UniProtKB/TrEMBL annotation:
Residues 167-255 form the Aspartate dehydrogenase domain. The active site is at 220. GO terms for molecular function: aspartate dehydrogenase [NAD(P)+] activity; NAD binding; NADP binding; oxidoreductase activity, acting on the CH-NH2 group of donors, NAD or NADP as acceptor. It catalyses: L-aspartate + NAD(+) + H2O = oxaloacetate + NH4(+) + NADH + H(+); L-aspartate + NADP(+) + H2O = oxaloacetate + NH4(+) + NADPH + H(+). It comes from Paenibacillus sabinae T27. This is L-aspartate dehydrogenase.
């Protein structure tokens, strides 16, 4: 399976490294779409030889990837999604982009018409297998509480509202439906979108977001109730050194999905 990556930041670099070290099953790395490009990173050699680094989307797609992994943010999903799905499967890490109903609808139609798939990995959250199965029946509630340390909010609008360095207590910076949280925190609460897509949708999934000076990991608590029974879980993701908003687990989850999609055995669906 030939893979293309859009975005060579924190997640994209990790994903490329895992693939080149042979850790992504049968997947090989065909090309990386960067914003300004070809860079010195074109020296990234490994299992797939040297993948093409390019800033040209056409050149990128000419490498004929079977699957494109988006690791570049909401705008990239909107800019490239339909064009990717005409010729390849599309794995969307920036799942919050799909809170735009119109975009989500167009991506699904394009995928269906062209025989490709839109794939959302679990990424920073857990339990989507159970939530998705549970949503086959009636569900009463799916809720999420996301908490991240102050440094994870640097560079977001939260920085303008709070003195991040001076916080001594957790502060709730959002409470409402997932459709709003996914749009309001494009780099930080994509988990609310993945949870919504797995379960009862963006409007019924409820979300609270906290800046919490008392923690060192990025924490996501999920509660769900319905005909299936109930689920309560909490994950604590180690923040990446390169970007404290993002947990290392995100790239690992992408790699696990590449293993599933390219190989003979699937688990954790
Ligand atoms: N689903 C989930 O659980 C999570 C999703 N995310 C999403 O993943 C995105 C990426 O996260 P990081 O790698 O930590 O961010 P990052 O800021 O370290 O890297 C993003 C990279 O994408 C590049 N880029 C942006 N637009 C591009 C374009 N049009 N073409 C090519 N490259 C482009 C940037 O130059 C940058 O190098 C976040 O913005 C967020 O939306 C992040 C963490 C968890
Ligand atoms: O990595 C995390 O813990 C979650 C994250 O940034 C997101 O959902 O966008």
């Amino acid at each position: 399976m030939r893979v293309g990556i859009i975005g060579y930041g924190t997640i994209g670099t990790d994903v490329a490294g895992f693939i080149q070290r042979g850790e992504a099953g049968e997947a090989s790395l065909a090309a990386v779409l960067v914003r300004k490009g070809p860079t010195c990173e074109s020296s990234l050699a490994g299992r797939s030889g040297k993948p093409l680094f390019t800033a040209s989307f056409n050149e990128f797609m000419e490498q004929v990837p079977d699957l494109v992994v988006e690791c570049a943010g909401h705008a990239a999903v909107a800019a490239y999604g339909e064009r990717v799905l005409r010729t390849a499967d599309f794995m969307v890490v920036s799942a919050g982009a799909l809170a735009d109903e119109d975009l989500y609808g167009r991506l699904l139609i394009t995928a269906r018409e062209n025989g490709h798939r839109l794939v959302v990995p679990s990424a920073a959250i857990a339990g989507l297998d159970r939530i998705a199965a549970a949503s086959v029946g009636h569900m009463d509630e799916v809720s999420l509480i996301t908490r991240k340390p102050p440094k994870a909010w640097i560079g977001t609008f939260v920085e303008d509202k709070l003195n991040l360095e001076g916080l001594t207590e957790p502060v709730c910076v959002f409470e409402g439906p997932a459709r709003e949280s996914a749009k309001l925190f494009p780099e930080s609460v994509n988990v609310s979108a993945a949870l919504s897509l797995a379960g009862i949708g963006f409007d019924r999934t409820t979300v609270k977001v906290f800046v919490d000076p008392g923690i060192t990991s990025n924490r996501h608590q999920v509660v769900a109730r319905g005909k299936f029974g109930e689920l309560q879980l909490e994950v604590g993701n180690t923040p990446s050194a390169a970007n404290p908003k993002t947990g290392y687990i995100v790239a690992m989850s992408v790699i696990h999905n590449l293993q599933k999609l390219s190989g003979p055995f699937m688990i954790g669906l």
